[in-house]
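Hi! If you just cloned this repository, the fastest way to understand the data is to look at a raw example. We've pasted two of them here, unedited. The first protein comes first, obviously.
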Amino acid sequence: MSPTDDPDDGLRARISRQGEDTFGRIAQELLESPLVSGAISRAFEAREKASQAQEVAMGALNLPSAGDLERLTRRVRSVSQRLEGVEDTLDRVEQRIASAGGAGALEARLGAIEQQLAALATQLSEVAGQMAPPSAVAPKASRTPSRARQAAAAKRAAAAAKKP
């Protein structure tokens, strides 16, 4: 005779099945009962009213509710994530500046650009002076010093453009 052929195991399984079936029918009948379902819905309504009263009381005492704390926690997480993004971006910018030779190299480059802009401005004013109508040109005596100044400025600009 094997252990599965034991008559006590069969009886135990049959009683267990009957018990489960009975509990299932009882639960089903309770849920279908208008009296029980009404009591359950009133209990949930009472719980909701108690929760609202608790929030009002805590608000009157100027204490945060669990919902307030949860909203605050979500906001702090959001700000933290945004801050991490900003930090990452700043790290990338710092790496780019370092790879470009640092802030000193940028200063030198900006200085060279300013010098080139000054040279271009001088050349532009020379061209504008040459294109001016003859009536707008000053008498010959006053033109000579300005042309000398323009030529000197052009030489300075050319020398500055050759440096970098």
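Ok, and the second one:
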Amino acid sequence: MEEKIVYFEESGKANTEVTLQLALDRAIARGISKILLASTRGDTARIFASKLTGTGIKMVVVPHQYGFGPGQRFPKELVAELEQQGHTVYFGTMLFHTDGFFGTNEPRLMANLLRTFCQGMKVCVEILFMVTNGGLVATGEKVVVVTGTGQGADTAVVAIAAPTTALADLHITEIICKPLQTKQGLPPPYATTPGAGAVQAAPPRP
């Protein structure tokens, strides 16, 4: 089997239009009816909703959870608008940001390992777990997942969903597109000293 993967020389918002089109094309080609989308402020969700009109494909949009920042940046009116179009907005617990609650480093370690692919890959796996835990995607269901770095979209994969209780059943089956490289945001004790080759922390979620 041969399939095209698109690599972006730079990460970020400028890749949004291409990423969304590639994700939609792959979903249609694979007969996939559900796309998961990380969207903090709702801009990417609005763009993608317009692209999905008439396709029969529905989105599960995953913003930041409540309490992650000083306020919820995803507009309430957009939640209602997307739901009227048959999409779902899910404010679930961001599983790779639970160190402070559970007092273990495992979530951080898993997130940092996934960031070696790119920031978006970390978010792909995170929101896959989140929506499957929440019952919005069935275990074993094939979906397209779209995420990004900072703002917009630059990463997309085809995946088989699984909950956190069945980690081995989650599979990234196809990489549709990704940046060649993104900045690693490694918090202490993993961060190096600034000025000694350290990179600046990327935003924790697109």
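That's it. A detail worth noticing about the second one: The beta strands are 6-8, 34-38, 58-62, 88-89, 142-149, 151-160, 171-179.
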